[in-house]
Design brief:
Two copies of one chain form a homodimer. Chain A has about 350 residues and is of the alpha/beta class. Helix content of chain A is about 45%, strand content about 15%. The first copy, chain A, has twelve helices and twelve strands. At the A-B interface, helix 4, helix 5, strand 2 and helix 11 of A face helix 4, helix 5, strand 2 and helix 11 of B. Chain A binds a DNA duplex (30 and 30 nucleotides) through helix 2 and helix 4.
DNA sequence: TTTAATAATACAAACGGTTGTATTATTTAA
DNA sequence: TTAAATAATACAACCGTTTGTATTATTAAA
């Protein structure tokens, strides 16, 4: 193992060629201010000496890091990973890298991550707030520093100066439930999550709206708002719900993919035939819905596109540094992916 | 929206308090060289002015970015995401951030990412080589620059100077197949992947070893080496295999989670009862195996721990900058998670 | 007191680039 | 040939920190 060699820098090249650092810098930039023959000499020498520009020095000097900071609530959810893919692809095409941080579903972590990014590490931030996040001063602070911010997914409150990328939860649910109704379903169960959360409120709202529009009876006994955050306990809640249900539902609209799958699991165990006896629709089209037997009909979110859009909005902000930037709000459409469970 | 304000820097604080920049810097560092009363003044002023240190300047000056670069072949594989979680948790505890890059399963991208990291953005690199990666000069270059490197998962060849974190594929397969044999299975099918790849070679090796040890007849007709890289085509290959199989297998050992699930899907469709007629074991414990009906017995890899170990080794390298660093190789144990499919 | 020792602070170089301006070399026009 | 115009390059400040050394203020010892 050879000794670690000191990095080659502009100065080293300059000295060897007996030119100034400035000339070397410009030559490497293909700046027309340096003579062609000089440029070639410099490029050749740089190559032969194994020159690697120092990104940190560049950033300090230019005030740009070409890094986008991304904060997601968790890594182990395909939804966020897909969004990150979208961000990454778009970013890479525009010469940006992404620095992903997980807030571990904790407000504290979210704030800490934001503060870390605020230290000049990133040119802008794409953030999906945790469900815990109720105040937004930490985000507003960042914006006030002049750092561009784009929010996506779980947005409880619009933030002045930040762009927003959302899906239309309300409408998506409405469409799914409408679809069930039009198929002639009478007793459509609703499986939602903690009702304090905006997502679940909106999805519930869509359910109610569709039911009302078609004059369906809304039965409390067919509605479950899961309270648990823990996967394991969700399972139990859903089992209890279906095992003690006083009316036989003929359809289930579940507010997450997992709720849908857990429902199917329980229903199959109880002897229901899917889709003969009962139809099931889940929300979100990632993970297991497709390979499960039977495969599950889902509301597909344009996850990847969401990431792309977020990156696009952010980079747009980079390129118009003349404030004040107000906000763009993009609402993306979902679509119903029909499978065996309906 | 107020105007973007210029960032507060040490100089601003220094000027206000009529002290030198050095003193301010040291005061914020709690350096005992500054008087307590001065330090307090500085801290107070820094806070009231909303001072945020500039990470880039710090990095340039200190030569440390406190960022770990991570390169994985793809985002949309739970395996890598879990490893990243492990890396991130360990890194965060030791005051490092991670910058994740995907090589999109392409050697070119892998090399490009590596070069980007080489520009001084990261203090060290954790890399899982793509299946395409056959030469390692790009990695050796990085190591020669004195940048610590840890490799994990798909390592075809040990690289001098880099640490390695692996699982014992051979033994894991051996154990799984041995388990099936001990359950009295006679016709154990093997579903592997492209046999040129080291992983699949090792897993096949484990299968053969177990079969030989227990004097089982090895039948070519029960062995499939999938050729496809494409999920969709995998499905077809596996369907064809089982639909045309001349002998009824009573067990399947599949080299990936997905192969296992696809096998189950096909077998169920063909009327097999699992586990009554046939047992199935998959490799990898992430994703669907658990929720599938029936749930699938799997070889669980210590994915999260793998990430932690990788981060640990890397940070260890940071702390012993006296070369030459040779290499550490860590082989992690798997375990068989029993479920309904066996 | 006056000096020596030490505490507190200031100065300035360094990290490795970028970029505006000054300077020198070369070409063009008179 | 020489002045003016322009091309090529050099100089030096700057980005915001850290840190070794020099300087000044304070305290302790003689």
């Amino acid at each position: 193992m050879p000794l670690k060699k000191r990095r080659v820098k502009l100065e080293d090249i300059a000295r060897k060629l007996n030119v100034s650092i400035a000339t070397v810098s410009r030559a490497l930039d293909e700046n027309p201010r340096v003579k062609l023959s000089t440029r070639e000499k410099v490029l050749k020498m740089a190559k032969s000496m194994g020159y690697m520009p120092n990104q940190i020095a560049k950033s300090l000097s230019s005030g740009k890091t070409n890094i986008i900071g991304v904060i997601i609530p968790r890594y182990d959810e395909p939804f966020f990973i897909e969004v990150c893919r979208g961000i990454d692809d778009y970013a890479r095409e525009h010469n940006y890298k992404i620095l992903i941080s997980s807030s571990r579903n904790s407000f504290e972590f979210e704030r800490d991550n934001l503060i870390a990014f605020e230290r000049g590490l990133v040119d802008g931030i794409i953030l999906s707030p945790t469900h815990e996040t109720e105040i937004f001063t930490h985000i507003k602070n960042v914006i006030q520093q002049g750092i561009p911010v784009v929010l996506f997914d779980n947005i409880r409150e619009e933030v002045q100066g930040a762009d927003h990328v959302l899906i239309d939860d309300d409408k998506a649910s409405f469409n799914a439930v409408e679809f069930l109704i039009k198929k002639g379903k009478k007793n459509i169960a609703f499986i939602g999550g903690i009702i304090e959360k905006k997502v679940f409120q909106d999805r519930f709202k869509g359910y109610l709206e569709a039911m009302k529009k078609y004059n369906m009876t809304i039965r409390e006994e067919l509605i479950l708002h899961c309270k648990s955050l823990d996967r394991e306990y969700e399972d139990i809640e859903i089992q209890n719900f279906f095992n003690n249900i006083p009316i036989q539902p003929d359809a289930v609209f579940a507010c997450t993919d997992n709720y849908g799958l857990l429902s199917m699991k329980t229903l199959l165990k109880s002897g229901y035939k899917i889709p003969e006896d009962i139809s099931v629709i889940g929300f979100g089209d990632l993970g297991l819905g497709e390979v499960y037997v039977p495969s599950m009909t889902c509301i597909a979110q344009p996850t990847y596109v969401m990431g792309q859009k977020a990156a696009e909005l952010l980079i747009k902000q980079f390129n118009e540094p003349n404030e004040p930037h107000l906000k763009n709000v993009i609402k993306l459409k979902t679509k119903l992916v029909l499978r065996d469970s309906t």
